[in-house]
Amino acid sequence: MTDLSTSPVAASALAGPAVGDYVALLKPRVMSLVVFTGFVGLYLAPGHLHPVLAAIAVLCIAVGAGAAGAINMWYDRDIDAVMRRTRGRPLPAGRMAPGEALGFGCVLAGASVLVMGLGVNWVAAALLALTIAFYVFVYTIWLKRRTPQNIVIGGAAGAFPPIVGWAAVTGDVGLPALLLFAIIFFWTPPHFWALALYRSGDYQRAGVPMLPVVAGARETKKQMLAYTILLWPLALAPALLGVAGALYGAVALALSALFTGAAVRVWRDSGERSARQMFAFSILYLFLLFAFLVIDRAPGLAGGLG
Protein backbone atom coordinates (compact mmCIF):
# COMPACT_ATOMS: atom_id res chain seq x y z
CA MET A 1 0.00 0.00 0.00
CA THR A 2 1.32 3.42 -1.00
CA ASP A 3 2.31 5.76 1.83
CA LEU A 4 0.58 9.01 0.88
CA SER A 5 2.80 10.95 3.23
CA THR A 6 5.76 10.26 0.93
CA SER A 7 3.96 11.44 -2.22
CA PRO A 8 5.38 14.75 -3.55
CA VAL A 9 1.88 16.16 -4.10
CA ALA A 10 0.73 15.07 -0.64
CA ALA A 11 3.88 16.48 0.92
CA SER A 12 3.27 19.79 -0.82
CA ALA A 13 -0.31 19.89 0.40
CA LEU A 14 0.76 19.12 3.97
CA ALA A 15 3.45 21.78 3.89
CA GLY A 16 1.05 24.39 2.55
CA PRO A 17 1.74 26.93 -0.18
CA ALA A 18 5.00 28.86 -0.06
CA VAL A 19 5.33 32.60 -0.62
CA GLY A 20 6.57 31.83 -4.12
CA ASP A 21 3.31 30.05 -4.89
CA TYR A 22 1.31 33.15 -4.06
CA VAL A 23 3.65 35.20 -6.23
CA ALA A 24 3.19 32.71 -9.08
CA LEU A 25 -0.59 33.15 -8.83
CA LEU A 26 -0.13 36.81 -9.74
CA LYS A 27 1.43 35.90 -13.12
CA PRO A 28 4.34 38.31 -12.53
CA ARG A 29 5.70 38.22 -16.08
CA VAL A 30 2.32 39.17 -17.53
CA MET A 31 1.76 41.68 -14.72
CA SER A 32 5.02 43.51 -15.40
CA LEU A 33 3.98 44.49 -18.94
CA VAL A 34 0.47 45.38 -17.78
CA VAL A 35 1.86 47.64 -15.05
CA PHE A 36 4.26 49.31 -17.47
CA THR A 37 1.52 50.14 -19.98
CA GLY A 38 -0.63 51.45 -17.14
CA PHE A 39 2.24 53.67 -16.01
CA VAL A 40 2.66 55.03 -19.55
CA GLY A 41 -1.02 55.98 -19.65
CA LEU A 42 -0.56 57.81 -16.35
CA TYR A 43 2.65 59.49 -17.55
CA LEU A 44 1.13 60.78 -20.78
CA ALA A 45 -2.03 62.13 -19.17
CA PRO A 46 -2.30 65.93 -18.97
CA GLY A 47 -2.41 67.41 -15.51
CA HIS A 48 -0.57 66.58 -12.33
CA LEU A 49 -0.84 63.74 -9.83
CA HIS A 50 1.17 63.77 -6.62
CA PRO A 51 4.00 61.20 -6.86
CA VAL A 52 2.64 59.29 -3.86
CA LEU A 53 -0.81 59.06 -5.46
CA ALA A 54 0.78 58.08 -8.78
CA ALA A 55 2.64 55.27 -7.01
CA ILE A 56 -0.61 54.15 -5.37
CA ALA A 57 -2.36 54.13 -8.74
CA VAL A 58 0.37 52.00 -10.35
CA LEU A 59 0.38 49.66 -7.35
CA CYS A 60 -3.40 49.23 -7.61
CA ILE A 61 -3.08 48.39 -11.31
CA ALA A 62 -0.42 45.81 -10.42
CA VAL A 63 -2.47 44.26 -7.62
CA GLY A 64 -5.63 44.25 -9.75
CA ALA A 65 -3.79 42.51 -12.60
CA GLY A 66 -2.37 39.96 -10.16
CA ALA A 67 -5.82 39.37 -8.68
CA ALA A 68 -7.27 38.65 -12.11
CA GLY A 69 -4.40 36.22 -12.77
CA ALA A 70 -5.02 34.39 -9.50
CA ILE A 71 -8.74 33.97 -10.20
CA ASN A 72 -7.89 32.85 -13.75
CA MET A 73 -5.58 30.15 -12.33
CA TRP A 74 -8.32 29.03 -9.94
CA TYR A 75 -10.85 28.63 -12.76
CA ASP A 76 -8.40 27.07 -15.24
CA ARG A 77 -6.78 24.60 -12.85
CA ASP A 78 -8.31 21.63 -14.71
CA ILE A 79 -6.89 22.55 -18.10
CA ASP A 80 -3.63 23.82 -16.58
CA ALA A 81 -3.09 20.28 -15.25
CA VAL A 82 -2.93 18.80 -18.77
CA MET A 83 -0.81 21.49 -20.42
CA ARG A 84 2.98 21.20 -20.20
CA ARG A 85 3.39 24.97 -20.02
CA THR A 86 1.11 25.32 -16.99
CA ARG A 87 1.07 22.02 -15.09
CA GLY A 88 3.76 23.23 -12.69
CA ARG A 89 1.55 26.06 -11.42
CA PRO A 90 0.59 25.94 -7.72
CA LEU A 91 -2.94 24.54 -8.17
CA PRO A 92 -2.39 21.70 -10.69
CA ALA A 93 0.85 20.79 -8.88
CA GLY A 94 -1.12 20.39 -5.64
CA ARG A 95 0.79 23.00 -3.67
CA MET A 96 -2.30 25.09 -2.97
CA ALA A 97 -5.99 24.42 -2.41
CA PRO A 98 -8.39 25.99 -4.94
CA GLY A 99 -10.21 27.95 -2.24
CA GLU A 100 -6.97 29.59 -1.15
CA ALA A 101 -6.26 30.84 -4.65
CA LEU A 102 -9.81 32.10 -5.17
CA GLY A 103 -9.88 33.85 -1.80
CA PHE A 104 -6.47 35.40 -2.42
CA GLY A 105 -7.56 36.72 -5.82
CA CYS A 106 -10.89 38.09 -4.58
CA VAL A 107 -9.32 39.89 -1.62
CA LEU A 108 -6.67 41.48 -3.83
CA ALA A 109 -9.27 42.47 -6.43
CA GLY A 110 -11.50 44.15 -3.88
CA ALA A 111 -8.58 45.85 -2.13
CA SER A 112 -7.08 47.22 -5.36
CA VAL A 113 -10.38 48.77 -6.48
CA LEU A 114 -11.17 50.18 -3.02
CA VAL A 115 -7.72 51.73 -2.55
CA MET A 116 -7.79 53.19 -6.07
CA GLY A 117 -11.17 54.77 -5.37
CA LEU A 118 -10.35 56.13 -1.93
CA GLY A 119 -6.79 57.16 -2.71
CA VAL A 120 -6.98 58.36 -6.32
CA ASN A 121 -10.46 58.66 -7.88
CA TRP A 122 -13.51 56.52 -8.46
CA VAL A 123 -13.40 56.74 -12.26
CA ALA A 124 -10.04 54.98 -12.27
CA ALA A 125 -11.37 52.53 -9.68
CA ALA A 126 -14.42 51.72 -11.81
CA LEU A 127 -12.20 51.15 -14.86
CA LEU A 128 -9.92 48.90 -12.81
CA ALA A 129 -12.94 46.91 -11.63
CA LEU A 130 -14.10 46.62 -15.26
CA THR A 131 -10.64 45.37 -16.28
CA ILE A 132 -10.63 42.64 -13.63
CA ALA A 133 -14.24 41.63 -14.34
CA PHE A 134 -13.62 41.52 -18.10
CA TYR A 135 -10.60 39.25 -17.72
CA VAL A 136 -12.35 36.91 -15.29
CA PHE A 137 -15.92 36.73 -16.59
CA VAL A 138 -15.65 37.61 -20.29
CA TYR A 139 -12.29 36.09 -21.22
CA THR A 140 -11.64 33.31 -18.68
CA ILE A 141 -15.14 32.00 -18.04
CA TRP A 142 -17.07 32.88 -21.20
CA LEU A 143 -14.70 33.04 -24.19
CA LYS A 144 -11.56 30.99 -23.56
CA ARG A 145 -13.15 27.55 -23.82
CA ARG A 146 -15.84 28.45 -26.35
CA THR A 147 -14.44 30.31 -29.35
CA PRO A 148 -11.19 30.69 -31.31
CA GLN A 149 -11.81 34.44 -31.08
CA ASN A 150 -11.12 34.24 -27.34
CA ILE A 151 -7.87 36.16 -27.65
CA VAL A 152 -9.29 38.77 -30.03
CA ILE A 153 -12.19 39.80 -27.80
CA GLY A 154 -10.56 38.89 -24.51
CA GLY A 155 -7.51 40.95 -25.43
CA ALA A 156 -9.44 44.02 -24.33
CA ALA A 157 -8.70 43.08 -20.71
CA GLY A 158 -4.98 43.53 -21.26
CA ALA A 159 -5.57 46.78 -23.16
CA PHE A 160 -7.42 48.60 -20.35
CA PRO A 161 -4.47 49.48 -18.03
CA PRO A 162 -3.32 52.61 -19.98
CA ILE A 163 -6.88 53.90 -19.74
CA VAL A 164 -6.89 53.23 -16.00
CA GLY A 165 -3.57 55.07 -15.65
CA TRP A 166 -4.84 58.01 -17.70
CA ALA A 167 -8.05 58.20 -15.67
CA ALA A 168 -6.05 58.18 -12.44
CA VAL A 169 -4.68 61.61 -13.45
CA THR A 170 -7.58 63.14 -15.36
CA GLY A 171 -10.68 61.46 -13.96
CA ASP A 172 -11.87 60.75 -17.51
CA VAL A 173 -10.92 58.89 -20.70
CA GLY A 174 -9.15 60.80 -23.47
CA LEU A 175 -8.29 60.03 -27.10
CA PRO A 176 -4.59 59.28 -26.39
CA ALA A 177 -5.64 56.67 -23.82
CA LEU A 178 -7.97 55.09 -26.39
CA LEU A 179 -5.08 54.98 -28.88
CA LEU A 180 -2.95 53.09 -26.36
CA PHE A 181 -5.88 50.72 -25.79
CA ALA A 182 -6.17 50.11 -29.55
CA ILE A 183 -2.45 49.39 -29.94
CA ILE A 184 -2.51 46.71 -27.24
CA PHE A 185 -5.85 45.32 -28.46
CA PHE A 186 -4.56 44.73 -32.00
CA TRP A 187 -1.13 43.60 -30.78
CA THR A 188 -2.58 40.82 -28.60
CA PRO A 189 -3.76 38.37 -31.34
CA PRO A 190 -0.45 38.06 -33.23
CA HIS A 191 1.43 37.99 -29.92
CA PHE A 192 -0.63 35.18 -28.42
CA TRP A 193 -1.21 33.24 -31.63
CA ALA A 194 2.57 33.02 -32.08
CA LEU A 195 2.66 31.20 -28.73
CA ALA A 196 -0.37 29.11 -29.69
CA LEU A 197 1.32 27.95 -32.89
CA TYR A 198 4.14 26.15 -31.10
CA ARG A 199 1.94 25.16 -28.14
CA SER A 200 -1.01 23.94 -30.20
CA GLY A 201 -0.63 20.38 -28.89
CA ASP A 202 -1.11 21.66 -25.34
CA TYR A 203 -4.29 23.52 -26.25
CA GLN A 204 -5.62 20.55 -28.20
CA ARG A 205 -5.14 18.22 -25.22
CA ALA A 206 -6.83 20.73 -22.94
CA GLY A 207 -9.77 21.25 -25.31
CA VAL A 208 -9.14 24.99 -25.66
CA PRO A 209 -10.27 26.13 -29.14
CA MET A 210 -7.28 28.30 -29.99
CA LEU A 211 -7.15 29.39 -33.63
CA PRO A 212 -4.33 26.99 -34.67
CA VAL A 213 -6.34 24.07 -33.23
CA VAL A 214 -9.63 25.05 -34.87
CA ALA A 215 -8.58 26.69 -38.15
CA GLY A 216 -5.08 25.31 -38.64
CA ALA A 217 -1.62 26.85 -38.76
CA ARG A 218 -1.99 28.42 -42.21
CA GLU A 219 -5.09 30.42 -41.35
CA THR A 220 -3.55 31.47 -38.04
CA LYS A 221 -0.42 32.74 -39.79
CA LYS A 222 -2.54 34.68 -42.30
CA GLN A 223 -4.45 36.41 -39.52
CA MET A 224 -1.25 37.14 -37.59
CA LEU A 225 0.17 38.89 -40.65
CA ALA A 226 -3.07 40.84 -41.13
CA TYR A 227 -3.04 42.09 -37.55
CA THR A 228 0.59 43.25 -37.77
CA ILE A 229 -0.35 45.29 -40.86
CA LEU A 230 -3.36 46.77 -39.05
CA LEU A 231 -0.99 47.83 -36.27
CA TRP A 232 0.96 50.20 -38.55
CA PRO A 233 -1.51 53.13 -38.51
CA LEU A 234 -2.31 52.56 -34.84
CA ALA A 235 1.34 52.52 -33.79
CA LEU A 236 2.00 55.70 -35.81
CA ALA A 237 -1.17 57.48 -34.67
CA PRO A 238 0.34 59.02 -31.50
CA ALA A 239 2.95 60.80 -33.65
CA LEU A 240 0.48 61.75 -36.38
CA LEU A 241 -2.00 63.20 -33.87
CA GLY A 242 0.57 65.08 -31.80
CA VAL A 243 0.49 62.83 -28.78
CA ALA A 244 4.16 62.02 -29.40
CA GLY A 245 6.88 63.48 -31.56
CA ALA A 246 9.20 62.53 -34.41
CA LEU A 247 11.45 60.30 -32.29
CA TYR A 248 8.54 58.08 -31.32
CA GLY A 249 7.25 58.12 -34.91
CA ALA A 250 10.56 56.88 -36.31
CA VAL A 251 10.82 54.12 -33.71
CA ALA A 252 7.19 53.06 -34.25
CA LEU A 253 7.80 52.86 -38.00
CA ALA A 254 10.91 50.70 -37.57
CA LEU A 255 9.33 48.42 -34.96
CA SER A 256 6.19 47.92 -37.05
CA ALA A 257 8.31 46.96 -40.07
CA LEU A 258 10.22 44.44 -37.95
CA PHE A 259 7.01 43.02 -36.46
CA THR A 260 5.46 42.56 -39.90
CA GLY A 261 8.72 41.02 -41.10
CA ALA A 262 8.53 38.53 -38.23
CA ALA A 263 4.98 37.63 -39.29
CA VAL A 264 6.16 37.11 -42.89
CA ARG A 265 8.86 34.72 -41.63
CA VAL A 266 6.23 32.81 -39.67
CA TRP A 267 4.08 32.62 -42.82
CA ARG A 268 6.96 31.10 -44.79
CA ASP A 269 8.30 28.79 -42.06
CA SER A 270 6.71 25.38 -41.62
CA GLY A 271 8.53 24.81 -38.33
CA GLU A 272 8.25 26.37 -34.88
CA ARG A 273 11.39 28.49 -34.72
CA SER A 274 10.00 31.61 -36.37
CA ALA A 275 6.84 31.48 -34.21
CA ARG A 276 8.97 31.30 -31.06
CA GLN A 277 11.06 34.23 -32.29
CA MET A 278 7.96 36.27 -33.13
CA PHE A 279 6.46 35.63 -29.70
CA ALA A 280 9.65 36.86 -28.01
CA PHE A 281 9.91 39.88 -30.31
CA SER A 282 6.26 40.79 -29.82
CA ILE A 283 6.93 41.45 -26.13
CA LEU A 284 9.94 43.60 -26.99
CA TYR A 285 7.86 45.40 -29.65
CA LEU A 286 5.17 46.51 -27.22
CA PHE A 287 7.66 47.38 -24.49
CA LEU A 288 9.79 49.55 -26.79
CA LEU A 289 6.76 51.22 -28.35
CA PHE A 290 5.49 52.32 -24.94
CA ALA A 291 8.99 53.08 -23.64
CA PHE A 292 9.57 55.53 -26.47
CA LEU A 293 6.28 57.26 -25.72
CA VAL A 294 7.86 58.07 -22.36
CA ILE A 295 11.32 58.87 -23.76
CA ASP A 296 9.82 61.13 -26.43
CA ARG A 297 8.15 63.20 -23.71
CA ALA A 298 11.28 63.45 -21.57
CA PRO A 299 12.55 66.97 -20.77
CA GLY A 300 14.76 68.34 -23.51
CA LEU A 301 13.14 66.34 -26.32
CA ALA A 302 10.68 67.87 -28.74
CA GLY A 303 7.25 66.40 -29.31
CA GLY A 304 4.27 65.30 -27.31
CA LEU A 305 1.45 67.34 -25.84
CA GLY A 306 3.34 69.10 -23.09
Helix/strand/pairing category: mainly alpha
Annotated CATH topology of the largest domain = Tetracycline Repressor, domain 2
**Cα-to-Cα separation, first versus last residue:** 73 Å
Q: What order do the SSEs take from the amino end to the carboxyl end, as H and E?
A: HHHHHHHHHHHHHHHH
The description of the largest β-sheet is:
none
Computed Rg? 20 Å
pLDDT averaged residue by residue:
91
Assess the beta-strand content as a share of residues: under 5%
**Number of helical elements:** 16
Q: Which descriptor suits the 3D outline?
A: flat
Number of domains: 2
Low-pLDDT stretches are: 1-14, 302-306
CATH superfamily of the largest domain: UbiA prenyltransferase
Counting DSSP E segments of at least 2 residues, the number of strands comes to: 0
